[in-house]
TrEMBL record, chain A:
GO cellular component: membrane
Transmembrane segments: 48-72, 93-114, 143-164, 185-209
Gene source species: Micromonospora saelicesensis
Keyword S-adenosyl-L-methionine: no
NCBIfam families: sdhC_b558_fam
Protein name: Succinate dehydrogenase / fumarate reductase cytochrome b subunit
Upper taxonomic lineage: Bacteria, Bacillati, Actinomycetota, Actinomycetes, Micromonosporales
Domain of life: Bacteria
Keywords (A to Z) from UniProt: Membrane, Transmembrane, Transmembrane helix
UniProtKB/TrEMBL annotation, chain B:
Protein name as catalogued: Succinate dehydrogenase (Quinone)
Organism encoding this protein: Micromonospora noduli
Sequence ranges assigned to domain 2Fe-2S ferredoxin-type in this UniProt record: 18-103
Record has Iron as a keyword: yes
NCBIfam families: PRK07570.1
Coiled-coil blocks: none
4Fe-4S ferredoxin-type domain sequence ranges: 150-179
Length: 210, 254
């Protein structure tokens, strides 16, 4: 869980930095998007690098889900008779929504790919004009799309808050002081990532990017 | 105090079990929780009914025998306290209190509130010991131990094996117990020879016993009557990673 989670978190950082290029203007953003398809040229032909990256990500996602499913099944088997009276757990909201939060994130990723990668669900859906796709996507009259993106990003934020701490712990973080630092680092990371992702749709919504 | 108790009654391991309501009147706030159950049992016996079976031994919070899920809290609402050391002044007059056994497939119910915690013994048998020459106690200064290590090992050694961590864990994992029993040895010089076979053996025994996997949810430490810190599990993880990297197996002494 920790290793695949870290791979996916690294991708999230890169993806967020790429998104923020939307503030540098249409030409620059579109140029960046096209450059992504050409990384590795001329060593690798065409979009090979992108496909290698996509393969790594899909493997990481599948391995992450398989590991989570194994844990969830073990948890169910470990407590066949439920408590009649069980308080809400003492742990954080993030910790107790990891499983369903993960499912929500998966559904969001599928929608997100259909929206801004294949363009199937995008009002413009022109792969050569990613800037136009983004602007059309978060237009004020499509507020429900922005709302859905916001909720999904917050779900990612909660997932990362517990996930990042948990990854440190799984990889051997072992002192009480380190635990406080790991929790703080996970919280800051989750908040920064949420902010970095949400600033784009809200910039379009408020007309800052058009 | 007058209380209404809803207690899990189960005749034996095969019985399905159910919650049964008992009113208990004239409870002194100075009674311990187990004394309150004793009062209920005396009345049940006088009325010719089957008394409620529950585990207990020392009644001073050090043996780890008593363990009840009280209103959804392992060992009740007071932190750092076993059920036997919990007093009725923690509850309000007229309150309804739900009492259930630990719920885990690795801890099958024997009767009513009594569970079989032999699974913990299997984890200990798989590595929770050191191989040391016996005889008279050696001179304490002959093996220096860093103060920080001694303190952390002592924190782990406070574990009484009551099973509250398993009962509180949303995954039914016994990782806090396993980590405590592991680190009390792995932090000390005497525990080093078997350090890496021990961790593989104990984690394997933990998984084979049917406990769930740890997801760092953090439920166990607040429920633990001895307050074993959550980072103890991190010490286990680090030893486990090191052992896997070394290719250690679970055969002690190898």
């Amino acid at each position: 869980m920790a290793v695949t989670g870290i791979l996916l978190a690294l991708f999230l950082i890169a993806h967020m930095l790429g998104n923020l290029k939307v503030f540098t203007g249409e030409t620059s953003f579109d140029h960046y998007a096209h450059w992504l398809r050409d990384i590795g040229k001329p060593l690798l032909p065409g979009v090979w690098f992108l496909w290698i990256l996509r393969t790594v990500l899909v493997v990481a996602v599948v391995a992450h889900i398989v590991a989570a499913t194994v844990l969830a099944r073990r948890a169910r088997a470990a407590r066949p008779v439920k408590y009649a009276h069980r308080k809400k757990v003492n742990g954080s909201y993030a910790a107790r929504t990891m499983r369903w939060g993960g499912v929500i994130i998966l559904l969001f990723v599928i929608y997100h790919l259909l929206d801004l990668t294949t363009g199937t669900l995008n009002p413009v859906g022109d792969a050569s004009k990613p800037y136009g796709n983004v602007v059309a996507d978060f237009a004020p009259e499509r507020w429900y799309v922005t709302l859905f993106y916001t909720l999904a990003i917050l779900a990612v934020g909660f997932h990362l808050r517990h996930g990042a701490f948990s990854a440190f712990r799984s990889l051997g973080q072992q002192t009480p002081r380190g635990e406080r630092r790991a929790r703080t680092a996970a919280l800051i990371f989750a908040v920064l990532l949420c902010a970095g992702y949400l600033v784009v749709p809200f910039a379009v919504l408020t007309g800052l990017v058009s | 105090m007058n209380l209404t108790l809803r207690i899990w009654r189960q005749k034996g391991p095969e019985d399905k079990g159910r919650m049964v309501t008992y009113p208990v009147n004239d409870v002194s706030p100075d009674m311990s929780f187990l004394e309150m159950l004793d009062v209920l049992n005396e009345r049940l016996i006088l009325a010719g009914e089957d008394p409620v079976a529950f585990d207990h031994d020392c009644r001073e919070g050090i043996c780890g025998m008593c363990g009840l899920m009280i209103n959804g809290d392992a060992h009740g609402p007071q932190r750092g306290t076993t059920a036997c050391q919990l007093h009725m002044r923690q509850f309000k007059d007229g309150e309804t209190i739900d009492i259930e056994p630990w719920r885990a497939s690795a801890f099958p119910v024997v009767k009513d509130l009594v569970v079989n915690r032999s699974a913990f013994d299997k984890i200990i048998a798989a590595g929770g010991y050191v191989t040391a020459p016996t005889g008279s106690a050696p001179e304490a200064h002959s093996t220096p131990v860093a103060k920080a290590n001694a303190d952390a090992a002592f924190e782990s050694a406070a574990c009484i094996g009551c099973g509250a961590c398993v009962a509180a864990c949303p995954n039914g994992s016994g990782m806090l117990f396993t980590a405590a029993k592991l680190t009390q040895l792995s932090l000390l010089p005497q525990g080093q020879p078997e350090r890496y076979t021990r961790v593989i053996g104990m984690v394997d025994a933990h998984d084979e016993a049917g406990f769930g996997g740890c997801t760092n949810a953090g439920e166990c430490t607040p429920a633990c009557p001895k307050g074993i810190p959550l980072n103890t599990i991190g010490r286990l993880n680090r030893d486990y990673l090191a052992a896997t990297a070394k290719g250690a197996n679970n055969t002690p002494g190898s």
